[in-house]
Amino acid sequence: KTTEAPGLFVFSELFDHPLIKALDEKDASSDLALLQLFCYGTYNDYKTAQVSYPPLTPLQVRKLRQLSIISACYSQKLIPYDYLLQMLELSSLRELEDLIIELFYLEAACGKLDQQKGLLVVESAIGRDLRETELPKLCSDLEAWCSRVDVVVSEVVGEMEKAKKLKHDWEVSRAALTEKVNLLNSLGKKRLWKI
Length: 195
Hints:
Elements: H1 18-22, H2 29-40, H3 43-48, H4 58-75, E1 78-80, H5 81-87, H6 93-105, E2 109-114, E3 119-125, H7 135-194
């Protein structure tokens, strides 16, 4: 039932539940495989090894298709409708748009549907469960991101220093100009007094 729940897109915590831990891997292997599919897999993974899983309900198929869209959002920011239709084995553009719109309403993905160009324009998507083997890549991605942030911060600090110097130079120039204007004004007043 959990794999059918609307708005639920993270499942790995279920592996820590006592009832799941108590399952005998031999007796419940297809159920455990199904849970792993919803944690880490896609609709294509299901279709490739369909015999390894129990039959899916229509709600589970819908959820797995949505999880597949979320996964696609990680690697692409402009996803062609044709690609999604083929990947999800959908025949109707309306079905695809309904899946995506529901993801938007559930705040599982954010973006736009560009119907003229036939694209899903991705702004962001929620994270999916990670296998432990994926953690090193995540760490290296985060380290690379931190390095890019450090470079940007250094550039911003440099620009701030330039701006401070320009402001200081402008203030010095303005003070000198004000002093000259005051001097000229005082000289002009002295001449008027003589006349």
